[in-house]
Write a structure and sequence with these properties.
The chain has a 5-stranded parallel beta sheet, with helices on both faces. It has 11 helices and 7 strands. α1 packs across α2 and α4 packs antiparallel against α5. It is α/β, with parallel strands linked by helices and about 200 residues long. It has 2 domains: about 130 residues, Rossmann fold, CATH 3.40.50; about 60 residues.
Length: about 200
């Protein structure tokens, strides 16, 4: 029996469209491509979410990937608070699940700088029973340890949890940990899949 719904945040409870963000910042397609490759499509991005090194150190790693675009990379990082957007369905969805007797949590690869720069998109947090941010645990999905932290902190049985995430590898890890999983593609799709599971 499902008693707990666990949400990822980015691209699930908030919007995060990197390509739209790049278009917002830079008119030049070559700059957009170079900055995207140096930051978003690079393993160094995970160091932001892990929260184990400073923002300046992450910036240095990004810049090493494309030194000729150092100024654009710095701008993209420093203005990152402009990237995420609120999703109007987030709070109503959480509240509707709570009204059905379910507990709602979050489990997200997320970094401190973005929390500080765009706190308004996390306005659903007080509506949840709690959760785990990767940067605060120095752990990342799909490491089983981060799922374990969530369950141990809140006394959750994995078999009573369903995890909703937009990335299949994170869903697979949740399932291997004993949870059920739903790959988020849209609110309509995921909410219907969840309703069918409950």
């Amino acid at each position: 029996m499902i008693r707990n719904v666990i949400f990822d945040i980015g691209a699930v409870l908030i919007g995060f469209d990197w390509d739209a963000y790049m278009l917002h910042l830079f008119d030049d397609a070559e700059t957009r491509a170079a900055v995207t490759a140096a930051m978003w499509h690079n393993e160094d991005w995970h160091e932001l979410d892990r929260g184990a090194i400073s923002l300046e150190e992450v910036l240095r790693l990004f810049t090493e990937n494309a030194p000729e675009y150092a100024d654009a990379i710095r701008e993209a990082l420093m203005r990152l608070g402009e990237a995420p957007t609120r999703q109007p369905y987030a709070i109503p969805w959480i509240e509707s699940l709570k009204a059905r007797g379910l507990c709602v949590y979050y489990l997200s690869n997320y970094f401190e700088f973005l929390m500080q720069e765009a706190p308004q998109v996390l306005d659903f947090i007080p509506h949840t029973a709690g959760g785990v941010f990767s940067c605060q645990e120095k752990l990342l999905k799909p490491d089983p340890a981060i799922y374990r932290v969530l369950c141990e902190r809140y006394g959750l049985e994995p078999s009573e949890c369903v995890f909703i995430d937009d990335t299949q590898i994170n869903i697979d890890a949740a399932i291997a940990f004993g949870m059920r999983g739903i790959r988020f593609e849209s609110y309509a799709q995921a909410s219907a899949a969840l309703d069918a599971m409950l």
